Amino acid sequence: MTKTPSSASPSLYEDKRIISMPVRYLINIVAIAVFMLIGNLIISEGIINRTYTTILLQVGVYIILAVSLNISTGYLGQLPLGHAGFMAVGAYVGALAWKAMPHGLGYMIIGLIVAGIAAGIVGIIIGIPALRLRGDYLAILTLGFGEIIRIIIINLPDITGGTPGLLNIPKYSNFNVIFIFVILTCYIIHTMMKSRHGRAILSIRENEIAAEACGINTTYYKVMAFSVSAALAGVAGCLYGGLQGSLFPSAFGFMDSINILVMVVLGGMGSMIGSVLAASVLTALPAMLQFLASYRMVIYSVLLILVMIFKPSGLMGTYDFSLTGLIEKAIIKIRGGSKNNAKEGQANE
Amino acid sequence: MSKNQKQPVKLVPIPSPNIIPERDVDMSPILEISHLGIDFGGLTAVEDLNMAIGRTEIAGLIGPNGAGKTTVFNLITKVYQPTRGTIMLDGRDTAGLNTIQINKLGIARTFQNIRLFKDLTVLDNVLIGLHNEMDYHLAEAILRLPSYWRAERIARERALELLSIFDMQDLANVKAGSLPYGAQRRLEIVRALGTNPSLLLLDEPAAGMNPSETSELMENIQKIRDTFKIAIMLIEHDMNLVMGICEGICVLNYGKVIAKGTPEEIQANPEVIEAYLGKKKEAN
Asked: How many folded domains does chain A comprise?
């Protein structure tokens, strides 16, 4: 066939990785450690006060929520509106598990895992009927589910504390715990999306009929993506409980699901860094601009309208950040002779 | 995950592009269709279709627009469940199976209106075709165990090897949607080959290609058949391609078979000329 001019290098694929895999891991681990150290220093040295520390931790929780919702919206291409429902399941199950167990690091992790599994199972139960539907219908079904969860919580005061709330939850969620779980969530999603399972999920978004013709069990992968998304939301919910020390059903309403969805859409569906940035900005900004509280929803809507008009794919599109990729790019630039500057996952035409 | 244990990737060597091996047509049937029919409401789209395709045969399915050719493909791949009749793949009845199971049994297809994963790279498209050839579990992928790296490396090499059939390995990192039309059609064939089929269904593979691309495609279809030793069934309106490479041709009109035979027999059949070729001449 006739070669397009853009494919100048014959070994476009092979040459791309300048930095070998172990070195990549090392760079990333070092970067994570540095971030964690800086975070700890900022908090312990009192550079930011307690209010801002709480905001920082909330940002972490919302990052997990946004990147987990991104699995089912950005990668799978569905529109679920019940993410706060999964968060609630995780939050209450985790909090009750924590309260039932003695204090300790091991018990904290068990509580988080139990919360994740519980939300994941609920995700499977909801996902099997919901994912037979498409678009609007799926949105309405999951919206209804989120409300059902909230109503159940209100109506089980003996277990969940009902409307007055579940109090005295062990406050496990400090900076390190949340930071590690943010990293862990991003890592799980990243590695999942780089595997055959992740590609199967993407293929369903791209063209379901073709995916089936390629022998991909679309129902299975839809439910899998949905339940992984739910399980991670459950973990985030559990961390939320450990951060607040108390849980109220009103924190898991329809608007909270929408909030998370706005983060994903604003950041760019299918872009993890987009979700992270949007979650950070949209959590930190309203908290820091308390004096504008009454205008919050107005600002939200205007922001969303502007993004939809000028960049419908979200601020980041489907761009995915890679530290080592960035370093590689820099190396190529320094070397001058940029034989292959095609970025991973992006077209060069 | 993969409940049925898959054997490791079967690496069929792909020869250099200039060598086309000797023809070796195995006519023992891979696919046997008998009395196949489907009704959509009151409309009978396909009626009493009987045909068999040899194990390494290139078969053509032709007919005027709306004759029911794509419907036959959709019946074979179980996009529609047939109202009547049976489809036997390699001696096995396919009744009650779904599209995914049919693919796993060894039928791969391309689509008339191209259905690529447009926002993914060319390489990813082929890797999705190779999905069932990899057998690692999700946990192995998340923990990045050696089994993950090994399976991914083999699959990537395999994907590039498959792309090299059409000399597309250089385009591995290009978005599929940005490829020119002809290349998109070729990529669909490569993706279908990735699923390791024993029968490949091509729905108008030459549509939108210029004459030189079409003749290259003809060579490539034969090359695919000869190297992979698979059966190929194609729907095509380009008579040069059909008459040039098909060993057996089946002509459909209004859902019914009006002729079957070798290209020479079909070309001499007055009924075909009247129903199909004759009409075309008038139109021109």
From this structure: 1
B185 min Cα distance to partner chain A (Å):
12
* Range of the structural domain that residue A56 is part of: 21-328
Domains of chain B and CATH, by start: 29-283 (3.40.50.300)
Order of strands across the sheet that contains B248-253: B107-109, B199-203, B231-235, B58-62, B248-253, B256-261
Judge whether A11 lies within some domain. no
Q: Decide if A336 is inside a domain.
A: no
Q: Chain A residue with minimal CA distance to B217?
A: A1
pLDDT of amino acid A303: 81
Residue B160 confidence (pLDDT): 92
DSSP-H helix ranges across chain A: 21-44, 50-70, 83-100, 105-130, 135-154, 157-160, 175-193, 196-206, 208-213, 218-244, 254-267, 272-288, 296-310, 323-335
Task: Determine, for residues B128 and A194 on separate chains, whether the beta-carbon distance falls below 8 Å.
Answer: no
pLDDT in tens, B247-271: 989 998 888 888 888 888 888 888 8
Residue with tokens 């399980």: A231
Q: What is the mean pLDDT of residues A247-258?
A: 91
For the stretch A196-242, pLDDT in tens is 999 999 999 999 999 999 999 999 999 999 999 999 999 999 999 99
Write down the pLDDT at residue A90.
Answer: 96
Q: Are B141 and A191 in contact (CB under 8 A)?
A: yes
Q: Which residues of B touch A16 (CB under 8 A)?
A: 173
Contact B128 A342 (CB under 8 A): no
Shortest distance between the Cα of A193 and any Cα of chain B, in A, equals: 9
In a domain, A86, yes or no: yes
State yes or no: pLDDT of A13 exceeds 70.
no
Q: Which residues of B are less than 8 Å from A211 in CB distance?
A: 117, 128
Using one digit for the tens of pLDDT, what is the confidence trace for A289-347?
777 777 777 877 888 888 888 888 888 777 777 787 788 788 878 776 444 443 333 33
Closest residue in chain B to residue A220, using alpha carbons only:
B1
Residue A149 sits in a domain whose CATH number is: 1.10.3470
* Residue in chain A nearest B210 by alpha carbon: A1
List chain B residues with CB under 8 Å of A116. Answer: none
